[in-house]
Design goal:
By secondary structure, the protein is an alpha/beta fold. Helices cover 34% and strands 24% of the residues. Bound molecules: uridine 5'-triphosphate (UTP).
Length: 297
């Protein structure tokens, strides 16, 4: 039987320039979607998929992230004294078992591939997951759990994939599909941020991966690719045609690009509308706004 995937890398060392000036002092991953930071959604998804070891690739200025996962004895004591058991329960999700979480520094933002490579010594010889917290996925079965189940069948490297309109493909890594088997596709090529006319398909890679240790070996040899960064896509693509292979997984769910302002706002609305305590007020407000803007036209 294939060994379970129990380690996940969370690359969070990017500069987050699209959210300046906020990200000057607040890590992007700590920005809140309704009332939880982005990173909490990523951690919950990883836990649901059976991940036991959480490896963060961080950089200067991200200490708020480390604090977020620590116990907060004074706050907890206060809440206990006041009998606020519901709030205490909420804090529980933010705590990690001792030794379950590790932080590695990426000293320069040389790209996602480089960030993953920075964690190589903690991975050793086993498959691992990579989660980009700015891709938030609303799904009945959490996306990484779906992928872990699919991976148990295929082995190899697996990337989460979704259909995008042709004019958007150049913002993603795009799959060249060999065989389409429905939710799983086998891959014969991958291109990072192709020109519109050169995109091999409309299947774009988003921020969930299950990768074999061979990808770390490939990263050992990598040089900067598209945009002058060391690309994870290139290191995964180097496994195509080997015994490991690469598969795309069409996940069931809705992905929000919380690395962009528009995506973050859409996610905020969608996640708030999914909440019993916020739905009625927010939808009444949204209706009002839509009516006002129609009347102004
Ligand atoms: P992005 O491409 O979104 O870059 O990285 P960014 O720096 O976070 O944001 P912008 O574009 O400047 O606004 C995708 C993911 O890869 C991580 C980021 O933290 C994010 O989770 N990353 C990127 C690194 O960890 N290191 C890098 O060198 C680059």
């Amino acid at each position: 039987m294939r060994k379970k995937v129990t380690k996940a890398i969370f690359p969070v060392a990017g500069l987050g320039t699209r959210f300046l000036p906020a990200t000057k002092s607040v890590p992007k991953e700590i920005m809140t979607l309704v009332d939880r930071p982005l990173i909490q959604y990523a951690i919950d998804e990883a836990r649901a998929a059976g991940i036991k070891e959480f490896i963060f690739v961080t950089s200067r200025g991200k200490s708020a992230l480390e604090d977020y996962f620590d116990h907060s004895p004074i706050l907890e004591q206060e809440l206990r004294k006041k009998g606020k058991t519901e709030l205490l329960a909420l804090l529980k999700d933010t705590n990690m078992d001792s030794g379950a979480i590790a932080y590695i520094r990426q000293h320069r933002a040389l790209g996602l591939g480089h960030a993953v490579w920075c964690a190589r010594r903690l991975i050793a010889d086993e498959a691992f997951a990579v989660i980009l917290p700015d891709d938030v996925i609303a799904a009945e079965t959490p996306c990484l759990k779906q992928m872990v189940e699919a991976y148990a069948e295929t082995g190899g490297n697996m990337v989460a994939a979704m259909e995008v309109p042709p004019e958007k493909a150049s913002a993603y890594g795009v799959l060249d599909v060999q065989e389409d088997m429905g939710s799983i596709v086998s891959v014969k090529g991958m291109v990072e941020k192709p020109k519109r006319e050169e995109a091999p398909s409309n299947l774009a890679v988003i921020g969930r991966y299950i990768l074999g240790p061979s990808v770390l070996n490939n990263l050992n040899k990598m040089r900067a690719g598209a945009g002058g960064e060391i690309q994870l896509t290139d290191a995964i693509a180097a496994d195509i045609g080997t015994a490991n292979g690469v598969y795309g997984y069409r996940f069931r769910g809705q992905r929000f690009d919380c690395g962009s302002k528009a995506g973050f706002l859409q996610a905020t609305v969608a996640f708030a509308l999914a909440r019993d305590d916020l739905r009625d007020d927010l939808s009444a407000y949204l209706r009002e706004v839509v009516n006002m803007s129609k009347a102004a036209e």
